[in-house]
Structure formats: C-alpha cells, structure tokens
Amino acid sequence: MSAVLVLTLFHVLISLVAVVAGVVLIRRLIENGDDRILAQWFLVTIAVTLVTGFLFPFNGITPAINVGILCTVILMVTLYARYRGRLAGFWRPVYVAGVTLLMFFNTLVLIIQSFQKIGPLHALAPLGNEPAILACQVILLLVSLAAGIFAVWRFRPSLSVPGATFPSA
C-alpha cells in the first residue's frame, strides 16, 4: 500500500469522525449542553484533518488549500475562544460560530469529494456544478446557518466550564 493511499484513508476516516463528533456537538450546543470531551474530540479531529490535508503532494494553490488555510485560522480562533476566552462574554458566540463554520467546511468538502469519488454520485454531477451537487451545498448552508443561529441563541456555558461567566437571561 502506498504512503499516499494510507494518508488518504487516514485523512478520510479522521474527517468522518470529525463530522460525527461535530453533529453531536452542535446538537448539544443547541440543547444548551456542553460536553468538554466531545468538544475536544471534535477540535482534535478537525486539527488532524487539517494537518493531514496539508501533507498531500502540493500542486499549487487550489480551492482545497484555500479552505484548509481558512479553516486553520477559524480553528485557532475557536480554540482561543474555548480555552483562553473560556466561553466568557464575546467568546461564547465566537466559539459556537467557529464550531459551526468548521463543521460546515468539513462537511462541504465531504460532499464535494463524494460527488468526485463515488461513482453513482459522480454520474449525477460529473462537472461538479450540476443541480444535484448545488442542491446539496445549499441545503448544507441553510442547515448550518440555522444550527449556528440556534446554537448561539441557546448555548450558555455551564458550571462545568472553568472560568465561564453567565450572561443574564
């Protein structure tokens, strides 16, 4: 098995773990629950996804590289909001928005890659700009926006978050 194939398999698997962890984490945020372990899983798997994405052979700046750079910046701000800002005040919505954006971009890449690599999906959108793939992207955008808005609106840090402040209701 070639090194690139092993890297690809690991990258895909860790990315799928990040998607599952992200879905559950955002749901917990919407329910006003915080799960530090789940948040750590999500943030670590996103970080590993980003790092492994940058390990693939470089053939110039591509949309994937641009998304990776953007997500790296979002991850750094999200980590700061959670661990240094302690979800206090301004940092609470920044954290929730960061988690939502990271989840959106990771899932967007999953959709695009699925249409490129999975035969039946590729047959629906061989060029990557057909209605089937665009519909999936629009649905993802709308679901992400709604989830992000609800999570920012509903999530309030619990006593289990060290140093968290509680805004008045």
Write the topology of this structure:
Layout: H1 3-30, H2 36-53, H3 63-84, H4 91-117, H5 119-124, H6 131-154
Organism: Rhizobium oryzicola
Protein name: DUF2306 domain-containing protein
Keywords: Membrane, Transmembrane, Transmembrane helix
The secondary-structure class comes to mainly alpha
- Overall average residue pLDDT: 92
Number of helices: 6
Strand fraction equals under 5%
The number of distinct structural domains comes to 1
Shape: globular
Question: What is the rounded distance between the termini?
Answer: 57 Å
Number of strands: 0
Largest sheet: none
H/E element sequence: HHHHHH
Assembly level? single chain
Low-confidence stretches: none
Keywords: Membrane, Transmembrane, Transmembrane helix
Organism: Rhizobium oryzicola
Protein name: DUF2306 domain-containing protein
